[in-house]
Amino acid sequence: MVPTIKYCVFDVIGTIFPWKESFRFINLLSRLGLKSRLPSSELRQLFSAEIEDIFRSREGFQGFIVKAYGVEWRETPELIDRFDELLTSEAEVHPKADATLKELSKGRHLFVCSDTTGSTKGMLEKAGLRAYFQREYYSNEMHITKTGGLYSAILASYPSARPEEFVSIGDSARTDIAIPKGIGMKTIWIRNEALGRCQVEPDATVENIGEVSRAIEILD
User: Fold this and answer.
1) Which fold has domain 7-18+92-219?
2) pLDDT digit string (tens) for the chain, length 220 residues
3) Residue ranges of the domains in the chain?
4) What is the side-by-side strand order in the sheet with 135-138?
């Protein structure tokens, strides 16, 4: 039987690598020894305002660090490299990720879709999982975020495919569920209420990546 879901679009942090509170940007930057001159509420507001630029390009991330922490621009490349190294070292791949990706790759096309400063590619490489993915869509390389059209770019790569043949799998209720569902993709939410609850009903909800294969079988 030919599956109706042919393309599986995976988020990385919080999906293949289970979510940790230590993944939050401001926490990681603090652990690098950076101290903002801004009150914590203003720092969070600035981060929220700049997050699209941070994920869209290295220069956007550099600009945020300069504004938020008052460091010199020339210092930011090293800081970003250290940030990515710290985040990669914190990440622990889910014990069922390899088996799930291996199973799904036998009859479907697997993609990565990640809002990232560059660290998620390194995580997948370190974990030995990149070979499972036929295409990788990273915001910092494509200069497009999930909210800015990254999912539409995926659909545009396969003009003969229908949106309902794609399933987005991720833990962010907004960027992994609401946005792809809004352009016709099916969605599987890996429950993570730390990032907010779903305002748009996902097609399936699971607790971790180990339950994804079964959820896709049911949606098929």
Assistant:
1) Rossmann fold (3.40.50)
2) 556 999 999 999 999 999 988 889 999 999 999 999 899 999 999 999 999 999 999 999 999 999 999 999 999 999 999 999 999 998 999 999 999 999 999 999 999 999 999 999 999 999 999 999 999 999 999 999 999 999 999 999 999 999 999 999 999 999 999 999 999 999 999 998 877 777 889 999 999 999 999 999 999 8
3) 7-18+92-219, 21-90
4) 135-138, 109-114, 7-10, 166-170, 186-190, 204-206
User: Cβ(13)–Cβ(122) under 8 Å?
Assistant: no
Q: DSSP labels for the chain?
A: ---S--EEEE--BTTTB---GGGSHHHHHHHTT---SS-HHHHHHHHHHHHHHHHH-HHHHHHHHHHHH---GGGHHHHHHHHHHHHHHH----TTHHHHHHHHHTTSEEEEEE--SSHHHHHHHHHT-GGG-SEEEEHHHHT--IIIIIHHHHHHH-TTS-GGGEEEEES-IIIIIIHHHHTT-EEEEE--GGG---SS--SEEESSGGGHHHHHHHH-
Q: What is the pLDDT of residues 70-96, one digit of tens each?
A: 999 999 999 999 999 999 998 999 999
Q: Which of 5, 15, 40, 32 is nearest to 164 (CA)?
A: 5
pTM (whole model) above 0.70: yes
